[in-house]
Design brief:
The complex is a heterodimer of chains A (about 525) and B (about 230). Chain A is of the alpha+beta class and about 525 residues long. Chain A has helices spanning about 1-25, 35-45, 65-75, 80-85, 85-90, 120-125, 150-155, 180-185, 190-195, 215, 235-240, 265, 275-280, 285-290, 420, 425-435, 470, 495-530, and strands spanning about 95, 100-105, 240, 245, 300-305, 320, 325-330, 335-340, 345-350, 355, 370, 370-375, 385-400, 445-455. Chain A is about 30% helix and about 15% strand. Chain B is built from six helices and two strands; from the N terminus they run βααααααβ. Chain B has helices at about 10-35, 45-70, 85-95, 115-140, 160-180, 190-195, and strands at about 5-10, 200-205. A two-stranded antiparallel sheet of chain B has the order 1-2. Classes of the chains: A alpha+beta (about 525), B mainly alpha (about 230). At the A-B interface, helix 1 and helix 18 of A face helix 1, helix 2 and helix 5 of B.
Chain lengths: ~525, ~230
Amino acid sequence: MKSYTKPITFFLAIVAPLLIVTLVLRKPEPDHELLNTLRAKYAVKRKPGVDHSKFEILQKNFTNPHEITAACLSCHTERGEELMNSAHFTWEREAFIPGRGVTYLGKKNLVNNFCTGVQSNEGSCMKCHAGYGWNDKSFDFSNPYNIDCVVCHDNTGTYEKASGAAGYPKMGPEGPDFKAIVASVGQPKSAGCGTCHFGGGGGNNVKHGDLELGLLTGGRDVDVHMAVDGLNMNCVDCHTAENHKIKGRYYAVSSSNTQRLNCEDCHTETPHQQNILNEHSIKVACQTCHIPVYAKVNATKMYWDWATATRKKDGKEYEVLDEDGNIVYTSIKGDFVWDKMVKPEYLWFNGTADHHLLTDKVDTSQNILKINTLFGEYRDRDSKIIPVKVHRGRQPYDAENLTIIQAKLWDKDKGKGALWLDLDWERSIEEGMAYIPLPYSGKHSFIKTEMFMPVNHMVSPAAEAVTCKECHTRENGRLAGLTDFYMPGRDRNRTLDLAGQLLLILSFLGIVVHSAIRALSSRKHNTIQSH
Amino acid sequence: MSTNNRVYVYKGFERFWHWNQALLIFVLAFTGFEIHSSYDFFGFETAVKIHNYAAWGFIILIVFAIFWHVTTGEWKQYIPTTKNLKAQAEFYLFGIFRNAPHPTKKTLISKLNPLQRLVYLGLKVLFIPIMVISGLLFMFYRYPQGDSIAIINIDNLEIIALIHTAGAFVLLAFVLVHLYLITTGHTITSNLKAMITGWEELDEEDQKDQDQPIGKPENEHDENPKI
């Protein structure tokens, strides 16, 4: 009996303290108090405080959308001023950019590597402008009746701007039922926001990759916030507005670290039970782990090669579709590459960005031109690692003046230099550059470009978040491209590792040799003794 | 050998401490090198968790061990000495092959030979503190933030990580050699048995000199220190 007590005591002496330590340090069960509070808050759907159908001024038969705006502003007297100062109307923002000073940049005057830019194409592009009649540079930004209120505030889902009509809806019997629309105006609905924000770039999910129709019908696997089987939140639940200044930034057109919308605004900076995860949030944006893939429902455009546009087959323009029905070639736009369930690329980002302007020189010694630059690095306190969609492409630039080109793509009529109608690059470029106006040498070429678009939507359920090992791994981790810091599991000092391994090998060899000599000599010794 | 005497060399706590430390170092090394991406076993996340728990266990153990060493005066066992240092080295290099006797006699008040004194002291005052401090920094370092305490801000993890890795290699090499040297006692298993049971057979005459000052090991059997 006694012989058992010792090993048992001994065993307990080793195991017991470890057990105690483990129990003491064990984290409590997940506490979802904050999440439950948020769920309770957003489960309550807003009910409007007024019934617009009861207002006499809205009872008339509107023949012209400017009249609607006038009716709106007759009660909402200050909203016109607010909207005329908002980016939805001005398409530019006042921002300070290091090296440039105070700039006024936005969709109004920036280039991108989708349709290259709006200038000279306003008639078509302004289908997504919250105004009426921005057809060319003569548009009056100071006339409040040029504001389109119902494009955002329509709750019937029937209001639609006409194509190529500079922001006007169709009018007359074919147009939307203005009376029904104004009777039910209210907070913007997701589908309304989506008309432009899902469809930008020429079709559903073309541009962003994380903003598309799939959000309206998807479950928690698509987006935990907007899930129809979840809280079914609206865009404006997060993108709140004060005086028509809406929270949230899109850095293909924005530059400054203001008015951003952050997950932390609701979820706090320490939302995890495990402290080690909370610490990650100092350097890693929530989106990095919680949006493992984007373009979850429909494909998004990853590559656009303008250089192959204007080809014809049998003298005619043509299109090529892939098996999912996505256009992979069209004569008017060139080659496309689409992708679905895309893993983002990752960058350091501090909330400020620069843009390649039409007046900037193209550095042809660089293989790739960055259309926008997201600032940030490891050593910058304000920087975090964020997921981005990088849209790559080839687009025209002036081979002699070394400037990027704004092409004229659209017009109502043939023969006016619009690429999409005439399929003539030279004319298109001449017209586009003359419109701005900027010089064009007459010689164009194509340059590889990249555009960086932070991915913020399509948040996956926690269980599907990026795992530790996907970054903390030696080869091909998600963060393999961010090399300006040391990450455990990914990085090592090769010399140190080699020296360490050598030390272990030498120790082991020493033991082997030493024990071998010992064995040999003791045998010899024994042999001598036995003799 | 002269008349042998069973002596209770390693006290309960000492053995408890030793074996826990052995277990923890093994666990820390195994999970640590997984975190270093040297291999895949538990998975990175689990390896980090185990490593952190074991680290806390190790720190608690160290606190108790320091208390024990101070209160029992056992810390004096680690006072380094140069006496017999050369003889001890020569024993491991040559004497051991000729069945020469141990140059240093193990006694209750001087359990460690001069080489052990040096190595264990190095572990206790250099390598383990390096591992503990770099490990704690690993756990508690803070990136500079707006409202943070500047003194615990660390811009770069790299130097901490490299020190921690280097220390891990050294400790691992120590464990390897230590495991082998266990077999160099009176018999191949006598050292191991002593650390398990606490009892070891020591030469009787050594035990008479228990009032001998600690730090000056006996050397009367050193008849043949040189080859």
